[in-house]
Design goal:
heterodimer; A: 137 residues; mainly alpha; Helix Hairpins; 5 helices; 69% helix; disordered N terminus; B: 551 residues; two-stranded antiparallel sheet; 22 helices; 6 strands; globular
């Protein structure tokens, strides 16, 4: 993974700033994203509430990773003065700002969801969704 | 003058923080909260006045010019929704001061209430789709806490469902936003409108945006509780405190409706493409049939389920699902009909002139559809929050909202029962209440479509009639079982919460006043609907500094 990313950066520099990522990186990231979403969905469909919360967390983190890839792969770190090969040599900083916001929001909601899970356990004596459903009617 | 756009948000934010600071003095905290609420309503009132008498106001955050900075846009559509929210908010806040127990108010109620208000206001005002996501989250987080506010067995269960569904919704919204940014290269709504209308000039493909817009639409439908995204509604409305149920059904739901109108009609509708079986033209043609099916399903499923409920709150919650169908129906009808005679405006950015299609047809049918949605939304906001407040008052007075334990309230609590009757009749659509005009414009849209030779109008009329029959059924069931007949033992022992009844009666009278003095409201809704479709004015107001950046 590390090697692939490095080689992309090198290639971008060689071609004078044109951000053309290698196909490998795209393939690896697409596969990883698919796996993350699959894992998240699998966990959300479990009966254990803690796993459901983890599943939701993984889905939202996968969405963050996806968001990072949407700015285009390749290019160098978007610091001022870093992109000496022209503007296109740095990667798009906007998506990173978006992800930062989304991560902070995710922090809050995950913490809330975990506390809520604990309260559900206190009130119902179970974190099994099937038993929770039976106790309802 | 344009700095004034942020005033309501700033007031709500400061009130939220102040109520946190003065937590140790409950009396002061309640006064601060009420004053802040009134200040917010005043600020919204003045903003609405400015927007309806003058041009669209925009506020560029930190003076970063659009499309690079975040922009807040107060146009007539946003103004209409803000005014609607402010009415419900003042009633709900005044109600909660007497309704929520002292400890609950002191610990978290007031700060959360105002934080939720910040999120709602931001969602109405923002002109940036990622910013819309952020405001949605700001609005949702307090609402999660409110659903679990009483933290009993029922409440934790409802909150879990509500939270998990909305967290998944947020992830889906992020996916859609990321995709839109990758395909079009912008997040600013005005910039997005221009790019979608001139795809060749920017070298972008419009086709993928259809799917991404559909993802966004599903998130808005989740917020609005439209079938098939309605599963969280009954449990959450039942679990939340009554004034919060009033806010959730009256205002938060309308944020979803506003987002549908703003994003689909103003922004995505500008894209012209070949949609295969859906025809060729505006992207709206794709969403028309989908909205129509979802609206009809909501009206019928919600209405049918409401008839069978034995708990007032659950009945009102299912009624909310049904009523949101009425709100969406006119949008679905007009979106299905291809635009005839729409004009082409032009926008100059820098040196380049871009064309932009304006979504108003010669027959004004599209405007009429959005007017129907807005009027019905206003009716539902006031009437449904009134009914939830009545339900809260009954709970405070009788100690139960189980229809089986009620009965004879009309004899012992005539004013409270009168308020329920007015709210119920407004949902049914009896003149001169506001609900009559809401329903009239919905039917008017459907019949105008029939006159224009569109079969979809006929479907709309039949579905709306069926939905109206269900409305009559569940309102009369609630009325006869809970209010008529001999007083039950519980009702005989009931207390008389005078302050709560007074608030409820004022809101009920408001329904009559709004209905009788409809003329300015109708004109307001009409110009708000025109603003939603007049893409040229919207984009011009945002004053894009630059639209030349290619994705």
């Amino acid at each position: 993974m590390m090697h692939v990313v490095l080689s992309t950066a090198e290639k971008a520099t060689e071609t004078g700033g044109a951000v053309v990522p290698e196909r490998n990186t795209q393939f690896v990231l697409a596969a990883v994203l698919g796996l993350l979403f699959a894992l998240g969905t699998f966990l959300v469909l479990r009966r254990d509430i803690v796993r459901v919360v983890w599943g939701v967390t993984i889905i939202s983190q996968a969405a963050n990773v996806y968001l990072v890839t949407m700015g285009g792969l390749g290019g160098s770190v978007p610091f001022v003065g870093h992109g000496t090969h022209g503007a296109s040599a740095t990667t798009d900083p906007l998506v990173q700002a978006l992800v930062l916001t989304a991560i902070v929001i995710g922090f809050g909601t995950t913490a809330f969801a975990l506390v809520l899970t604990y309260r559900v356990y206190q009130e119902h004596g179970t974190i099994d969704l099937a038993e929770l459903g039976d106790s309802h009617e | 003058m344009s700095n004034y756009v942020v005033a309501p948000m700033v007031i709500a934010l400061f009130t939220a923080i102040l109520t946190l600071v003065v937590r140790s003095q409950p009396r002061l905290q309640r006064s601060v909260s009420l004053l802040g609420g009134l200040g917010y309503a005043t600020a919204v009132g003045y903003l609405v006045y400015l927007v309806f008498t003058g041009p669209i106001l925009t506020y560029q955050l930190s003076n970063w010019a659009a499309p690079y900075g975040i922009v807040l846009v107060a146009d007539k559509l946003a103004g209409f929704m803000l005014a609607m929210g402010a009415i419900v908010m003042v009633a709900a806040l005044a109600f909660s001061v007497r309704y929520i127990d002292e400890f609950g108010q002191q610990v978290s109620y007031h700060p959360l209430f105002h934080f939720m208000l910040v999120g709602i206001t931001g969602s109405f005002l923002t002109g940036d789709i990622f910013n819309l996501f952020v405001w949605f989250e700001v609005m949702l987080m307090p609402s999660y806490v409110f659903v679990v506010f009483y933290s009993g067995a029922k409440h934790t269960r409802a909150a879990l469902q509500y939270t998990v569904l909305n967290l998944i919704g947020s992830a889906v919204m992020l996916l859609a936003i990321g995709g839109i940014y990758a395909t079009t290269g912008t997040l600013n709504m005005a910039d997005l409108t221009i790019r979608l209308a001139n795809p060749e000039a920017f070298g972008i493909a419009v086709e993928p945006v259809v799917g991404l817009a559909a993802l966004l639409f599903s998130v808005f439908a989740l917020k609005a509780g439209i079938v098939p995204f309605h599963f969280w509604v009954p449990a959450a409305y039942e679990a939340a405190p009554a004034p919060i149920s009033a806010m959730l059904s009256g205002v938060t739901k309308k944020v979803g409706i506003y987002a549908i109108v703003r994003l689909l009609f103003t922004v995505f509708g500008a894209a012209q493409l070949d949609l295969g079986p859906f025809g060729e033209g505006s992207m709206l043609l794709f969403f028309g049939p989908i909205m129509l099916v979802m609206a009809i399903a909501s009206m019928l499923i919600g209405g049918y389920a409401a008839v069978g409920q034995s708990n007032v709150d659950r009945l009102l919650a299912y009624s909310s699902i049904s009523q949101v169908g009425f709100i969406l129906l006119p949008l679905g009808i007009v979106a299905t009909i291809p635009l005839s005679g729409g004009t082409l405006g032009t926008i100059t950015i820098g040196e380049t002139i871009y064309s932009i299609p304006i979504g108003i047809s010669t027959s004004q049918l599209h405007v009429l559809g959005i007017v129907a949605t807005l009027l019905y939304s206003l009716n539902h906001a006031v009437a449904k929050s009134l009914l939830f407040l009545v339900s809260g008052t009954i709970y405070e007075s009788v100690g139960s909202i189980d229809i089986g334990k009620l009965g004879g309230l009309a004899r012992t609590r005539p004013f409270l029962s009168g308020a329920f009757l007015l709210g119920g009749l407004s949902l049914v659509g009896i003149p001169p209440l506001l609900g009559f005009f809401g329903k009239l414009t919905v039917f008017n849209t459907a019949s105008a479509a029939v006159v224009a030779g569109q079969d979809v109008g006929t479907i709309g009329v039949v579905a709306a009639l069926l939905g109206a029959v269900f409305t009559i059924a569940y309102i009369s069931k609630a009325w006869t079982d809970a209010f008529w007949g001999a007083p039950s033992p519980e009702v005989e022992r009931a207390t008389r919460p005078t302050a709560l009844i007074a608030i409820v009666v004022v809101v009920a009278l408001l329904l009559v006043v709004l209905g009788a003095g409809l003329d300015p409201i109708y004109e307001g809704a009409d110009s708000a609907a025109t603003a939603a479709l007049d893409r040229q004015s919207y984009v011009e107001a945002v004053a894009l500094s630059d639209a030349g950046v290619k994705p």
